[in-house]
């Protein structure tokens, strides 16, 4: 394995992944009155019980939410029902002497690096991160440590690409994944650092996906109480997000959508209803929104918008129903814009060069256009070319010179 040290860079960076969330794998739930608690779904102090347990009482919401990009944000590859349809066998060539081959072996999918025709390293795809909307990246594990693999899957191009932030002339298998990476791609994971600072995880304690408990808090006590008190129809020992204040609702979303904040307290200790700044240091200054990237800090962009500043109630859920899969539903979002912008309020769009029907069916392409992200980019293998992922901005405004209606 001397070839590895020659050709593979030695980075220990926090993983930068395509953060837009994974294909829904198998959905296993108990349809009987009693709830089967699976040990592998438990989190810290056995407080987490897993979204499967929500199905018995909240069947329609559960089935709807399980189709959303949030729910699909992470999954074990062995559970992914779509892996055979999504990922084709192929190779990415870095130079005449170095390439990575994606192939099936022993019932799994592997990425194998070859240098000068010889196998230098090979690892199985154990976990997938990403919803499958834009792209997905992959991790391998040796039971306690996680590493990001060198190739990611580009959904639109339907091909393998160099993983975000990876060099175009080296193949890396040693980018370690720390708990900060899981904090916005999973419901719970507990990290322990060894003497050399490496992150160790107990995979039996991990709860993957952005699940029901991410927004409503650990559910074990809630489930057990209502199993024993079926007549009590008022939810106990669970977070009801409907009663949160505007800022509390914003903080809940901002915990993952306000940039890479530095943790003040232990990862996964923040829960909706808490004050975000008590758990994380702010990732930006309010007067620096012009320099904010379109990806990662939707909170700062939204709160800098005129729409937000002139409203006393506008928050993320004013436009997004998190229990429904609404991605790219332009007409639906336009209807929500017109809750405030309509003929009666005399602030409907005044654009004269577009017919009214087009305008009322599609506000966001003009006022929240797709823009290139400097944070989600990749270098083409064998080329010195940086490509940028298009993400919809949340800085609501007028972009006359930058948009084209679809």
Strand content of the residues, in percent? Answer: 15-25%
Radius of gyration: 22 Å
| Helicity level | 10-25%
The first-to-last residue Cα distance is 51 Å
Number of strands: 19
- Average pLDDT reading: 81
- Cα shape: globular
Number of helices: 13
Query: How does the helix and strand content classify structurally?
Result: alpha+beta
Regions with little confidence, pLDDT below 50 for 5+ residues? 1-45
Number of domains: 3
- Describe the main β-sheet briefly: 7 strands, antiparallel
Describe the structure.
The protein has 406 residues and is α+β, with helices and mostly antiparallel strands. It folds into three domains: 1-238, no CATH class; 240-283, no CATH class; 287-406, no CATH class. 19% of the residues lie in helices and 21% in strands. The strands form six sheets. Strands 1, 6, 7, 8, 9, 10 and 11 form a seven-stranded antiparallel beta sheet that branches. A four-stranded antiparallel beta sheet has the order 2-3-4-5. A two-stranded antiparallel sheet has the order 12-15. Strand 6 and strand 7 form a beta hairpin. Residues 1-45 have low confidence and may be disordered.
